[in-house]
Amino acid sequence: MNMQEALKYIHGVSWLGTIPGLERELELLHRIGDPHQGMKYVHVAGTNGKGSTAAMLQNILTRAGYRTGLYTSPYIIRFNERIQVDGEQISDADVCALTEYIKPHAEAMADHPSEFEIVTAIGFEYFKRRQCDIVVLEVGMGGEWDATNVIEDNEAAVIVNIGLDHTEVLGDTIEKIALTKSGVVKAGCPCVMYHQEPSVEQVFREVCAEKGSPFTVADFDRLKPLSSGLEGQRFDWGELKDVHLPLLGEHQLKNACNVLTAVDVLRARGWRIPEAAVREGLSTVYWPGRFQLMAQKPLFIIDGGHNPQCLEALENAIRDYLPGRKLVFLNGCMADKDYGDMFNRLLPFAREFVTVTPANPRALSAQALSDYLRDHLNAKATPCEIVARGVETAVEKAGPDGVVCACGSLYMIGEIIAALNALKDEGRLE
């Protein structure tokens, strides 16, 4: 089995119509020897900030000397990003070998596992084979019935900001969504939470009290921002002074506070995490696609935010880092998203729009999006069906002194990065 064959099998498994539950994942894991058992975990759940929070925790734990696994989704450029150990992505050879190993077990099941369940099993088996000391495990969607929730306990459940997303599956109120996500809390295991809506925090307080799980909310009052620019930001957090974080936006400072709270909880459980590991882990963290500066002339920023909370963070970042500037927006979006709300938010910052069609069956066409922007918002918009051509067009329209912001869908970020790299190689972009 080569990489193309492995990915064809993995992505070819339909998840549509799958009945919620952990039975398939548990059966698949049992068939391959229960690799998820006997390992230590930090389980990261919530709506916005799971990936960057997980990346910070993984980097800190690695710098502290622990062999640390990281499981995230979705990927930006290549599938291998989803499964890492000590910051190194799983190799193509290991993806192929593990897919070949797991495939017959999945095929033998009466109720075939979904794509996410198969990938999760590959992750558990890889982490077991690599003898990880601890795994930072990001929930795919929800919590209680997510395939990652087969773990029996954790060193900490880390809850990020919770908002309205996947409401057709998780519930139509933020409290219902919080209750679903609280399923990752294990009896007696500590829970750390990003400070948020009182009603959401109350859901977790009650669940933790019922399960005898220590509950801690990150104290944002300890946060003191020091400086901020497109190169990163610096902050104090209590007694920890002048910390550098390359991730941009106030929300990333709050994510870092949540991570630092989790670090204190892990220390209390016996994990040796020196201050130097914390500083180095935060200062060198890399998480693509979140208000990420990709080029200087023009300034080219990518942001994969796709729900109301993410868009609010993007609005705030534009105000903070690009005050008074008018931007060329490069946009693609899914037809089933509330793109009207997104573009109403972006319009005050826009000079014009360039639209593209993301590589996804659910994508809205570039022409349809351009027509919407012109007809409903009276905005200047240019359609480019191919993402690479959209990148070129946006760069040309911005000029060397302008700003391009590519946003709206994680599904097009990989193609955008590839197109930007091609322009840099040709000397057309700095």
Q: Would you identify the regions where 5 or more consecutive residues have pLDDT less than 50?
A: none
Q: Describe the sheet with the most strands.
A: 8 strands, mixed
Quaternary structure annotation? single chain
Structural class: alpha/beta
Strand content: 15-25%
CATH class of the largest domain: Alpha Beta
Topology-level CATH name of the largest domain: UDP-N-acetylmuramoyl-L-alanine:D-glutamate ligase
The number of helical elements comes to 15
CATH superfamily of the largest domain: Mur-like, catalytic domain
Strand order within the widest beta sheet: 4-3-2-5-1-6-7-8
Task: State the share of residues found in helices, binned by percent.
Answer: 40-55%
Principal-axes shape call: globular
Second-tier CATH architecture of the largest domain: 3-Layer(aba) Sandwich
Describe this structure in words.
By secondary structure, the protein is an alpha/beta fold. It folds into two domains: 3-283, Mur-like, catalytic domain (UDP-N-acetylmuramoyl-L-alanine:D-glutamate ligase, 3-Layer(aba) Sandwich); 292-425, Mur ligase, C-terminal domain (Protein-Tyrosine Phosphatase, Chain A, Alpha-Beta Complex), CATH 3.90.190. The chain contains 15 helices and 17 strands. It has helices at 3-12, 23-31, 50-63, 92-107, 115-129, 167-170, 174-181, 198-211, 250-268, 275-283, 308-321, 339-346, 366-377, 387-398, 413-425; strands at residues 41-45, 68-71, 83-85, 88-89, 134-138, 156-159, 191-193, 215-217, 223-229, 232-237, 240-245, 292-296, 299-303, 327-331, 350-355, 381-383, 403-407. It has an eight-stranded mixed β-sheet with strand order 4-3-2-5-1-6-7-8, sandwiched between helices. A six-stranded mixed β-sheet has the order 12-13-17-14-15-16, sandwiched between helices.
